[in-house]
Amino acid sequence: MTVVAALVAATPAAAQRLSLGERVTLLENKANTENQAAVQGNIEAQNRIVQLQSEVQSLRNQIETLQNEIEQLKQTNRQQYLDLDGRLARLEGGAAPANPASPQNPAAAPAAPAANPATAPATAAQAPAADAAAPAAVDPAAEEAAYQAALDALVERFEADESARLFQRFLRDYPASALVPNAYYWLGESYYVTQNYELALEAFQTLLSQHAGSRKEGDALLKLGYCQIALGQRAAGEESLRQVSARFAGTDAAGKAESRLRTLALENR
Hints:
Elements: H1 2-92, H2 127-131, H3 140-155, H4 160-173, H5 180-193, H6 197-210, H7 217-230, H8 234-247, H9 252-267
Helix pairs in contact: 3-4, 4-5, 5-6, 5-7, 6-7, 7-8, 8-9
Family: Belongs to the CpoB family.
Subcellular location: Periplasm
Organism: Arenimonas metalli CF5-1
């Protein structure tokens, strides 16, 4: 009886040990499967990270390429503008007489510039004094280089004070240049961007009074109006803007003048 009882008691224990072994095996298999899945997921994540890094580097290269192309285009456009600016000015002044002190070219008359660069052109009373001296030879390459250096200081490096100084020197050194009207315009711009409205107004007035017909006339009249308004001369400024709209209809200057007049009208309401 004792042996039988022992066998009966032992049988469930053996069955229980087998069941636990099977369970352990199942758990191990499940853990192995999960580990393999995690490893595979990590590998895929790493591959994706490498792919994204490669794409980011490619995009950076493209951005750098585009930035270089944009910079090259800016340089090309700037150079084309400078060349065009100079060529058109020379075409406008191509009929000017050789004598820089002649009545047809009053901007060239003074033997020395006035104290204020914006009023450098001489009056008729000063012209005979200039006639007494023979005009000095001008190096066209040096003339153009001086003009472009002054313009570069303003539109390329945004150094308005330096630009004004260089344009003053240009007007002093090359009073007979066909670029004189343009130089007065950019001199006015140099003063305008630093809010030196009085000197800017003088420069624009000089261009308008002594170089009528210049292709900068519309823009100069527009900026003259801006200066007048900034100096509290609102009625005169509005009249200048209306002249721009009437005399230079269809131009960019006219569009800006009309826009400013609408803004001023709204302010009056």
